[in-house]
Structure formats: C-alpha cells, structure tokens
Input
Amino acid sequence: MACRAREAGVDEALLADAEGLVIEAAVSNVFAVRGEAVYTPPLEAGALPGITRACVLELLAERGVEVIEEPLPLADGGAAEFHEAFLTNSLMGVMALTRVDGVAVGAGEPGAVTADVRRAYAAL
Output
C-alpha cells in the first residue's frame, strides 16, 4: 500500500471498507467538511482511536461544529461532494487533504475549517 502511494506521488493512502467507503488513512484519521458539519469515520467502522483525532473532536465541539461519525464516500469521485477535508495524526498534526484519486476536494485547496482546526491544534 505505501509503495503504491509513493508510486502515485501522494503523501498518504486512504483505506476503504468493502463498500468503498473511507475508514482511515494508512497513518492518519480522516475528516471531511460538507455544509456546516464535519464528517469522520467512527471507531466502530475500524478507524484508529488516535490521540490527535480525539483532540480535534474536542476542538470542533468547543467551536459548536456538528460532527457526524460515518464512513466517508471519498473514493470514486466522492471527494467532490465535500467542501474540504483534512488528515490528523500525532506527527503532522492537521494536514489538508486536497485531492483523492485525482479529484479535488472542494476548491482543491485547504479550507477555512481545516485552517481553524490546524491553528487551534498547534496552540495546544
């Protein structure tokens, strides 16, 4: 998997379930923004219970952002359904996810929610 990601020239590989819904990334948790809500796969679906994920969930709650825990339809063009997306882990903190399988997430640039969460996480 890591070799295929490197060959594709990407920084991270997304992992999907049997239905093609993204559960997590190889070394990160995944979040996506649609409307006023942030979506992230639930632990019950197989997402890793990351420390950074837990901190980000708290930061979002402090900001009054609705979080919906469900697997994400990011593959097969589904990334276009979201305004922005980001990955989290303890080493990189919060990193924007701008493309999935060559499809732009939102405008293909880091969004406002990602920037806000990144700043708040860095301040911890």
Observations:
- The first helix runs from residue 2 to 7.
- The helical segments are 2-7, 51-62, 112-123.
- The beta strands are 14-16, 22-25, 29-34, 37-40, 66-69, 84-89, 93-96, 99-100, 103-104.
